[in-house]
Amino acid sequence: MATAPSTLPLFRNPKPMHNITDPNISEARKELIGIVGRGGIDDIPANLQSRSRTEWSPSPGSTCAALIVFPRSTQDVSMIMKVCHRRRIPVTGFAGGTSLDGALASTRGGICIDFSRMNRILQVHARDMDVVVQPAVGWEDLNARLAEMDLFFPPDPGPGAQIGGMIGTGCSGTNAYRYGTMKDWVISTTVVLADGTIVKTRNRPRKSTAGYDLTRLIVGSSGTLGLVTEAVLKVTSKPENEQVAVIAFPSSSKAVSTVIDVVQKGIPLAAIELLDDNTMRAVNESGYSSKEWKETPTLFVKFSGTTSAVQEQVDVLQTLAEKHGRESFESSSEPEQIAALWAARKTALWSLIAQKRDPDDKFLGSDTAVPISRLAEIIDKANAKIKAAGLLGSTLGHVGDGNFHTSILYGEKDRVIAENIIADIRRMGIEMEGTVTGEHGVGLALRDMLELELGESAVDMMRRIKFALDPLCLLNCDKIVRVEPNDGQ
Amino acid sequence: MATAPSTLPLFRNPKPMHNITDPNISEARKELIGIVGRGGIDDIPANLQSRSRTEWSPSPGSTCAALIVFPRSTQDVSMIMKVCHRRRIPVTGFAGGTSLDGALASTRGGICIDFSRMNRILQVHARDMDVVVQPAVGWEDLNARLAEMDLFFPPDPGPGAQIGGMIGTGCSGTNAYRYGTMKDWVISTTVVLADGTIVKTRNRPRKSTAGYDLTRLIVGSSGTLGLVTEAVLKVTSKPENEQVAVIAFPSSSKAVSTVIDVVQKGIPLAAIELLDDNTMRAVNESGYSSKEWKETPTLFVKFSGTTSAVQEQVDVLQTLAEKHGRESFESSSEPEQIAALWAARKTALWSLIAQKRDPDDKFLGSDTAVPISRLAEIIDKANAKIKAAGLLGSTLGHVGDGNFHTSILYGEKDRVIAENIIADIRRMGIEMEGTVTGEHGVGLALRDMLELELGESAVDMMRRIKFALDPLCLLNCDKIVRVEPNDGQ
User: Fold this and answer.
1) Which of A6, A308, A467 sits opposite B308 (nearest CB)?
2) Any idea which UniProt keywords this protein has (chains A, B) (predicted)?
3) How far is CA B344 from CA A405, B224, B279, B396, in A?
4) B441 to chain A: nearest residue by CA?
């Protein structure tokens, strides 16, 4: 190998040499009590377990943290990291706990930093349209507070998600088509690095070219480069005059063709979501929605803006949908009707789970995003694979972004088949110049797929950055990039 | 210092040990001819000079590159970097040459990689709304090509700028208020790292959470982390029904208050620019504009969208401007009238330069961005300082983003006074939680201000990343972060 290389291939990185022996943890515990007090430490086994794995984010191993620590400030986190750095104790951060793909698994034991005591909205700058928040603020609570001032924070991942985890994941949701993803709404972060150094990645202006974009390096880094202890978030004005339309199509490809036309015309819809025929069937069968739906691929569309702008958008969409052979078009601007129409989209995931044939059935999903011209093709292929295997599955998607989730419900005997189908969908996505993860993140489960997607040199560049900022691999070790060929995960 | 730190303070980084001796360059030249042919090498002194300094971007020293190399492909660039890496020859990339603040200065001599032969639009994916381009494609040429397909690429920096440099700078322009900056329009880059490794930072989907955001680390890195040899850019639909309004106000603060209301209402104007009274006077005196303008702070506003959406926006703006005591409101949707109205904004910089009292007079400018609530205050203070010093200066700004440029024209005898005023404006910007560079980049000139703005630990984190990816400091050494306390720049 050349001297002074720009990347760090696996095998060349130092093997993580953590110290999670009982005496080391026990000594650390005393020091940590000095920082957060006795009440700021927890080691109840059930709590340790619940922060390392969830039904949605299983951890393959049985490892979990030895201690949970509850800091109250950036200074606390810095002092905690200095203890862990000196003692070489691995650390995983925990906020809302809603992430997928193993991002929160404490694969190396050590310490879990639970941010639940750092849950305050610190400043609201209404004139500047930004807010300063701590990591355990939930996006739903933030929006409740902002609504009082007619303001709005768009990223809308799963219920319960909190800002710290949302930054870690670089998440998005149904609002991404109009408003972009988390990275577009974080102006600045305060992070604590592996050795306890506190860094503010940027000041508070909305626009900046002040050096390397550390903010965006942190967004999507899953707590592997630093722990976010504060963030400045952009906010916008609250959408007005909401309207919803539901449009049934004879096929996914006709629905997607409509979406492509919408994207090309640059129509600023508030959201545009596709539920396939299987999902619509699940919605009907679940009883979560009071309405009986056509069981065909269906677009759920949200509009917002001035009354005339919304009406204009509805008209354009109606024309486009007609051109692509829509079967029905229903729309409403009545709040109650909107809620009834949108309910199918909102309860789609619950409806799918309600289809479990056995309580022990498991759920497996993909998060592929492709250039939109390939979207209909990959959705059809994904559904065909599931049908051919005789499994229960369905697809829904944030189609305006080319991002879709195929879900499979399976019993243990079909596990390998289900896993293979999901892996096939991910590979097809890569072949179509797409990604295996549009919004959920790499976490633990997708590390090897990441290399398939971006190539070895890109992953080696990421590993180089990881070890430059965290040479001991203390922060959420094993996530995003492998650091050991066989780490048992 | 602790072992395994997360940052790299100045003094701790290895001193760049480049080899730019004549024999080494001469041997490298032979190898480079093997890669790009004799016609792909240039060492004419005037050409070497013109790639290291411009009227807009003076280089304090007299150093320039010893050779210019003209690659034709990513492979060429990779092979060139392998030669330079092995021989420890520093490298600076060159595209449109329009950057400011010394970003293109070859402070360490060595080699200039001129991308002018890599100027092709490689792919246009109209359905996916993206394009694949080489670094020497100019944004104006790109838009001319896209216009044929009713498509549009929004970032609009100075005329002549090319994609490679625009990515390096993370630039923007008048379209940023509506469309965001360069970082929002780069889906993926292909970069060659310091040791010649080729990395593709992302695939082609519009949305992705596939590992660290290498794309956004590269955007704004001024060619210090890697050389961009290809980029996938997002495009959007071409704006329709353009309309322009020009609104004169009795004071900057009344103009800015109007802008704040616009931002808070989330009105998607295409552009909103402020020219202060001094700029308007310069426009009148220059004769570039056929119209005689009021010499008061004036907002130049662009609208686009459906006819009714534009009309609605014009109406809202009219009401807001009236509320804030506008002196006049002129608008037009006639292409000729639009051109006549917008001419003042377009020729503002030329108008200022035309005010030179002496051909040797120099031009100095700031690029501060602040939270918008502080914008009127800082503009007033900046102008007061210039007036108090009896110098010729003015302010114009991308006010929707809180970003403004104060310019001073001065003769040599007033150089120190002018420099101090600009430094004061930058410091005021930092005190208001803003940045010293909203869109021009740190380059060479703003390195020490960067530390004042973000703190030592943030800059040390950047330096850590720089040396992780480029341990020999070959790529555009001395830019963004200092690597030697006294480098003579």
Assistant:
1) A308
2) FAD, Flavoprotein, Oxidoreductase
3) 50, 36, 9, 11
4) A209
**Do the bridges between strand B198-200 and strand B227-234 make them parallel or antiparallel, or are there none, so unpaired?**
unpaired
Query: What is the pLDDT at residue A345?
Result: 87
Adjacent-strand bridge partners of A152: A236
CA–CA separation, B203 and A290 (whole Å): 41
Q: What are the structural domains, with CATH classification, of chain B?
A: 22-116+446-469 (3.30.43.10), 121-237 (3.30.465.10), 243-346 (3.30.70.3450), 352-431 (3.30.70.2740)
Retrieve residue A371's tokens.
Answer: 């250039």
Q: Three-state SS for B275? A: strand
Residue numbers in A near B453 (CB within 8 A): 203, 210
Q: Which two tokens stand for residue A56?
A: 């949605």
User: What residue ranges in B156-226 does DSSP mark as E strands?
Assistant: 186-192, 198-200
CA A14 – CA A10 distance, rounded (Å): 9
Q: How many CB atoms lie within 10 A of CB B281?
A: 17
Beta strand A403-410 with A328-332 is unpaired
Strand, helix or coil for residue A153: coil
Beta strands in A238-283 (DSSP E): 243-248, 271-275
Facing A371 at nearest CB: one of B198, B205, B226: B205
Q: What are the per-10-residue average pLDDT scores of chain A (489 residues)?
A: 86 94 98 98 95 78 92 98 98 93 91 98 96 98 96 94 97 94 98 98 96 98 98 95 95 94 88 94 88 93 90 94 96 89 85 86 93 94 94 92 94 95 97 96 93 97 98 97 88
Tokens of B440: 């021009």
- CB distance B264 to A149 below 8 Å: no
- CB proximity under 8 Å: B 413-432 to A: 430
**pLDDT, tens digit (0-9, with 9 covering 90-100), for B217-247:** 999 999 999 999 999 999 999 998 999 999 9
> Do residues A227 and A201 make contact, with C-beta atoms less than 8 angstroms apart?
no
3-state secondary structure of A399: helix
Interface list for A 54-93 with B (CB within 8 A): 85-86
Please work out, in degrees rounded to the nearest 5, the angle formed at the alpha carbon of residue A197 by the alpha carbons of A221 and A107.
45
Rg of chain A on CA atoms, in Å:
23
Q: Would the CA dihedral through B198, B203, B209, B214 be positive or negative?
A: positive
User: Do residues B134 and B229 make contact, with C-beta atoms less than 8 angstroms apart?
Assistant: yes
With beta carbons less than 8 A apart as the criterion, state whether A56 and A161 touch. no
A 243-282 near B (Cβ less than 8 A): 260, 263-266, 268
Listed in sequence order, the DSSP H helices in A17-119 are 22-36, 45-50, 74-87
Beta bridge partner(s), residue B188: B232
Q: Which of B207, B450, B467 sits opposite A403 (nearest CB)?
A: B207
Residues of chain A neighbouring B436 (CB-CB closer than 8 A): 210
Res. B58: pLDDT tops 80: no
| Whole-angstrom distance, CA of residue A346 vs CA of residue B212 | 30
Contacts of A193 in chain B (CB under 8 A): 6-7, 461
Residue B149 touches chain A, beta carbons under 8 Å: no
Between CA B26 and CA B89 the distance in angstroms is 11
CB within 8 A of B3, min separation 6: which ones? none
Pairwise CA distance, residues A103 & A99, whole Å: 6
pLDDT in tens, B202-214: 999 999 999 999 9
DSSP 8-state assignment for residue A15: P
The token duo for B365 is: 């400018």
C-alpha distances out from residue A383 to A332, A389, A425, Å: 31, 10, 10
